[in-house]
Amino acid sequence: MCAAAVLALTGFTLFIGPAASAEPATAGTTVAAESAAAEPAAPAAPAAPAPAGPQLSIAVDDGRDTAAEGDQLAYTVTVTNLGTDAVAGLRISQLLPTGTTFVSADQDGVQDGGTVVWQQDLAASEVFTARVVATVGAPAAGELRLAGVACAALAADQPPLVCASDSDQLPAGAAADAAQAAAAGASGGDAAAVMGDGPRWWWFAGGAGVLVLVGAATALTVRHRRSDVATPPAAPVEDRLPVG
Length: 244
Description:
Layout: E1 5-9, E2 12-16, H1 26-38, E3 56-61, E4 72-81, E5 87-95, E6 100-105, E7 110-112, E8 115-122, E9 127-136, E10 145-153, E11 162-169, H2 171-185, E12 201-204, E13 211-214, E14 217-226, E15 234-241
Antiparallel strand pairs: 1-2, 3-4, 4-9, 5-8, 5-10, 6-9, 7-8, 10-11, 12-14, 13-14, 14-15
Pfam families: DUF11
Keywords: Membrane, Signal, Transmembrane, Transmembrane helix
Region (Disordered): 38-58, 225-244
């Protein structure tokens, strides 16, 4: 009812005013909605940083650079915990070079299929050192070097955290190096190189080459010959280099 009404009832006077609406005012509702929409969204919580893994270093060395059939190689494997937290159950392994025979390992190392394994807990800053001995067998034809690899991992089915390797030159490798050096030295020049597994070539400048000064330009005669035949055919090539 919009207008007030007065009703006389047996001496009583009853005043009836406009009925109050049960719904909130539309204007008030609109303002409240706008106010809520204007508030910025709460920022997302920053993602927790991923936990850092173990900080390790590893080295393997047999104290030599060459090896031959019958030699005994004594490898020293060293793993250091560089972090401030202990590492439990670390799997340390050394893969022996192909063609070698396992002899012994200390620190309770277990050999299986050419790989020596240690299970070790490392306190912060602790250093683990182990020794492995293997005998060199007859190298395969064309084998130039022997290589052993040591790694550390958290488990056998997980990728290694760190790895290191050590290699020794075999007699075939030394012979190949000597042949290459001899072929290069046969040029008689001041600089030489032998490249590739096919026909071998060497280059030289100076010495048997000819160095000529012509005015302001420098003419450098570069010759190259094949070194894999008894009488290499000459195949001279000349190139004039710019000044400087």
